[in-house]
Design goal:
The chain is of the alpha+beta class and 123 residues long. Helices cover 49% and strands 21% of the residues. The chain is built from four helices and three strands; from the N terminus they run ααβββαα.
C-alpha cells in the first residue's frame, strides 16, 4: 500500500514539474515578453494620403517589433504594405534592401522612412 501511494504521489509531482517546465518554455519564447524591456521610438513620414506614424521597439540593439500607430491610407490598398514591410524590416534588422509592396508604393516608402526617422541616431 505504501509503495502504491508513493508511486502515485511521485507521478503527480513529476506531472506538475513537467507542466511547469513546458509553461516556462512557452513563456520564454513569447514575443510579448521579448518586448517588455524594449526601448520605444516614434517615427512619422508622409504617406499617400497623410502621415504614417509608427512605433519601433528596440531591445539590445535589435528591432523586435513595429507598431503602426496612426495612418489615413486607403484600406485594402495599403494593407499589404502594413503587413509586409514591418516584417521585412525586422527580418533585415533595418530598412536597407527592403523593397516596396506593389500597388502600395507610397505607403511602403512612408513606413520605411518613418522607421528611419524613429531610429535616427539610435542604431
Amino acid at each position: 500500500m505504501f509503495y502504491k501511494t508513493t508511486t502515485v504521489i511521485s507521478l503527480i509531482l513529476l506531472g506538475v514539474i513537467i507542466g511547469l517546465a513546458i509553461g516556462l518554455a512557452i513563456q520564454i519564447n513569447d514575443p510579448a515578453l521579448k518586448t517588455a524591456g524594449a526601448q520605444k521610438y516614434i517615427g512619422e513620414a508622409k504617406g499617400f494620403i497623410g502621415p504614417v506614424k509608427l512605433e519601433v521597439l528596440v531591445d539590445n540593439g535589435e528591432i523586435v517589433k513595429i507598431n503602426i500607430l496612426e495612418h489615413n491610407e486607403t484600406p485594402g490598398v495599403s494593407d499589404p504594405a502594413f503587413e509586409q514591410i514591418p516584417t521585412r524590416i525586422i527580418e533585415n534588422q533595418g530598412t536597407d534592401g527592403v523593397d516596396v509592396v506593389t500597388n502600395a508604393t507610397f505607403t511602403s516608402k512612408a513606413i520605411i522612412e518613418a522607421v528611419n526617422n524613429a531610429l535616427t541616431g539610435v542604431l
